[in-house]
Amino acid sequence: TGGNNVKEVYKVGVDTTYPPFEFQEDGKYKGIDIDLIQAIAKDQGFKVKIEAMDFGGIIPSMQAGELDIGMGGMSITDERKETVDFSDPYFEAGLSLVVAKGNGKIASLKDLKGKMVAIKNGTTGAKFAEDHKDEYGYDTIQVSDSTSMFQEVSNGSADALIEDYPVISYAIATSNLDLQVVGDRLNGDNYGMSVMKGKQDELLKKLNDGLASLKESGKYDEILDKYLGE
Length: 230
Ligand code: GLN
Fold this sequence. Notes:
The protein has 230 residues and is of the alpha/beta class. The protein folds into two domains: 7-92 and 191-228, Periplasmic binding protein-like II (D-Maltodextrin-Binding Protein, domain 2, 3-Layer(aba) Sandwich); 95-182, D-Maltodextrin-Binding Protein, domain 2, CATH 3.40.190. The chain has eight helices and 14 strands. The chain has helices spanning 32-44, 58-63, 124-131, 133-136, 146-154, 165-174, 201-217, 219-228; strands at 9-15, 23-25, 28-30, 47-53, 69-70, 84-86, 91-93, 95-100, 116-120, 139-143, 160-164, 179-182, 189-191, 194-196. The chain has a five-stranded mixed β-sheet, with helices on both faces. Strands 4-1-5 form a three-stranded parallel β-sheet. The protein has a two-stranded antiparallel sheet with strand order 2-3. Strand 2 (23-25) and strand 3 (28-30) form a beta hairpin. The longest helix is centred in the last third of the chain and has 17 residues, at 201-217. It is globular. 39% of the residues are buried. Glutamine (GLN) binds next to loops. Residues 9-230 form the Solute-binding protein family 3/N-terminal domain.
């Protein structure tokens, strides 16, 4: 009786707010990451519980055993591969430099000498900014979520910020943010779902099998279209 029908519930860590990947509407979590993991769970016969937190807390929470899956528009990087295993990539992204709308003085990293750059704790953008700090002669101010990072530039506390281009493009297109993207993209990467390194091979296989099956059925494209349009 019973036992075998009980489905495994996996805790999924996502960013507090990172539209179009995750955001709250009417008290419910929505977005590409949320729809994808829910569809993968359905396809592979498990359940998920979404837990939102500052992005910088996701990998530490996985290491502490409090989360099974890390998402949140998380870029696949070699550095992170030392602590987590990534699924196959599910979205192409990368970084952009962002300034206040109408700022005609900053067109690229070269114009950042003596300037302040807002960064978000634990992100690839923060790492990029720190890695190039001395080269371009700027300083950094660190916050823990994208909303605060955008505000630092809007209110003039920072001159620029670094954010993933799908996220900043979506934010500029859908809200009246007084920000603009400048210059070429700073790099390119891919988002992946992550699990504890070396400890979740079965779950990782389910994530990859589920993703492949959503791509094959058209469900993956349907989810992307829902949030990004044609
Ligand atoms: N893709 C970036 C990273 O992995 C930013 C993610 C985020 O801010 N949620 O660090």
